[in-house]
Design brief:
Length: 129
């Protein structure tokens, strides 16, 4: 399984694609009936394979006028970033990554914040951006 993770990573597959392939081949994570991305990531790290390694001290902070990054949104909503990521992955929040930045971006408007509060409070089930 580890050998396959390394091989697939080296040909440019994402963790999600690798996990899906491992599952197709009958591999699974210890507590699941399928292989999960975090297992793939752990194996990659063990082999020193890190995606998009940054220069030490380089900033990843982004500011896009009129838009909020997922991190900025999480801070405004006072929720952990995984709260938003989980809802993106399960379809409750529909948003695509920005082609230029590779980030999830949301309109920096009071309406966006209000809509997220409604989601957080269970008043709505889905958001689309």
């Amino acid at each position: 399984m580890e050998r396959l993770v390394v091989e697939l990573f080296k040909v440019g597959k994402t963790d999600r694609q690798i996990a899906r392939r491992l599952t197709e081949l009958g591999h699974r994570s210890p507590q699941k009936s399928y292989a999960v991305r975090s297992t793939v990531k752990t194996i990659r790290y063990k082999h020193g394979l890190i995606r998009g390694a940054r220069v030490k001290g380089a900033s990843r902070a982004h500011h896009v006028p009129g838009l909020l990054t997922l991190s900025q949104l999480a801070q405004k909503l006072e929720v952990p970033k995984p709260w938003i990521y989980n809802r993106i992955y399960n379809g409750a929040i529909r948003v695509v990554k920005n082609d230029r930045t590779g980030l999830y971006l949301f309109p920096d408007t009071p309406d966006t914040i209000e809509r997220f509060w409604e989601l957080k409070e269970g008043k709505v089930c889905k958001l689309q951006f």
